[in-house]
């Protein structure tokens, strides 16, 4: 069992520590986005919300936002609960 594990480890790709800022191919100051092209198939209203959330995240340097922040973005678009 141990021999198989060692053989598999020896043929695996080298480990790349993505936490190291110097190891990434992305220029400094450019943020990696997982869903950069996912807005194309949304309805116009959903696309507007997605772009507003993306803008909020960039402006406030946040990768993830809380529900309170999302509510702030939604209200900034003019949505109100009756």
What does this molecule look like?
The structure is a single chain. The protein has helices at residues 2-11, 44-59, 67-76. It is mostly helical and 82 residues long. The chain has one domain (2-76).
Which word captures the global form? Answer: elongated
The structure class reads mainly alpha
- Tell how many strands the DSSP assignment holds: 0
Mean pLDDT: 78
Q: What is the percent of helical residues? A: 40-55%
Major pleated sheet: none
Q: Summarize the helix and strand pattern as letters.
A: HHH
What percentage of the residues does DSSP assign to strands (E)? under 5%
What tags apply to this protein structure?
82 residues; mainly alpha; 3 helices; elongated
Q: Would you summarize the structure shown here?
A:
The chain is mainly alpha-helical and 82 residues long. It has 3 helices and no strands.
Question: Could you give the topology of this structure?
Answer:
Layout: H1 2-11, H2 44-59, H3 67-76
